[in-house]
Predict the structure.
Amino acid sequence: MSVGSLSAGRLAGVIDSGRARARGDPAATVITVALVSLTVLAAILRFTRLAHQGFWFDEANTAADLRYAPGKMLGLLPQNETTPPLFYCVAWVWARILGFGEFALRSLPALSGVATVPVMYLATARLVSRRAGIVAAALTACNPFLVWYSQEFRPYMPMVLLAAASLLAFAQARERPTRGTLIAWAVICSLALADHYYALLVVVPEAVWLLADHRRRHGTPVAHLGGVEPVALPAPSVELDAELEDALRSLSAQDREALLLVAWEDLTPTAAAASLGISAAAFRVRLHRARRRLVYELENGPRRHALENCQPSLEQL
């Protein structure tokens, strides 16, 4: 598909908007402070009185299993546990470093619970928005069940951390479905399943969604903007066009899609989101990142002079 009728003015507007957003957003500082504060709060809630009570039955069995050699421990797991071995392998090393006391062993799930807060923020921010990410981080930090299981020496909180990480990898794979992002998602999902079988409740829906996205992407013409045929900009008296051609070609198909739906098809974010089958908020996040990547491509390498020539060239139209 050719983009010969692309409006240079519209695309320049997209670039200028991306530059303005890339220079710095005051809200980003507020978001960062809020996220750090929530992470600290999560640490306080999870580490306070961590060793106040002794091990209960299941914790004591887990701690006892760790005292054996690795081979014997793994041989006993099918008899004593109904969960996969990853947590016990990590905990075995953890106990050799910090010891077998309540605080030392429970610090492993406690740290997993703290780390889940920023990971959940990143995943939600990619899928929805930064504001939704802060809400998700706050709920993760203060959820009584998550605080409880962060203070229990069992594989549950490491599974929650890996499930949150799989959600983040899922968001990245949806945004940029490259071999690298898909492999990263698969590896994290494998680790989550190796920690606890309940991770299936997260992994299976993500896998189904990615497969559905793959079918839609390869079955809908709009998903192939710049993909089936090379992006070919015309060469009128606008010096920017050649630079835009290079910059657009360097972007992923998903980034080109978001930019062209707005700059070429002249769709609103809501209409573009509807055509892609995603929420308007998710499309705005995708468009924001596509703008930033386009600006980066134009400001670096052989395209670094494109933005300087943008306004003089547009005045000739």
